[in-house]
Amino acid sequence: MLSSEAISSTTGYLLLKLADLARARMEQALLPFRLRGRDLRVLAFVHDAELSQRDLCRQTGLDRTTMVAVIDELEGNGYVRRDRSSSDRRKQVISITADGRTALSEALTAVRRAEDDFLAALHKDERRQLHHQLSLLYTAHDPRCQTD
After folding, report:
1. What is the secondary structure of 71-96 as a DSSP string?
2. What is the pTM of this model?
3. Per the CB 3.0–4.6 Å rule, which of 16, 39, 88, 94 could disulfide with 35?
4. Distance from C-alpha of 35 to C-alpha of 43, rounded to nearest angstrom
């Protein structure tokens, strides 16, 4: 067996290649909203509650430097607002704007459509099973990341 066949026959290789393809599809679906995947993730978290940048880093898994860049971009698009915390003036809290809520809703619809297209080769039950199995693996490797 050739080395290239040995690597391409591994599940890990398939997961990496599929992740690349899925990311590209998602990023393409987000372009009309001036968003990337990481931006969408942050918008979803601040939609649920005002959060400090530190809390956003902890919850999204993004590092501080990346988070500052994401917040700058989201704020520049008018999707979030930075304000000083009323309880701790050293802390900045991030909140979503009305434009951010609209963008989030429309972007999530576009991402779901892109996901449906991407997973079209699988039947509905197979999609549910795939999601469940991936969730199990994700949780096994990072228990903070419960998805189901």
Report:
1. HHHHHHTTSEEEEE-SS-TT-EEEEE
2. 0.83
3. 39
4. 10
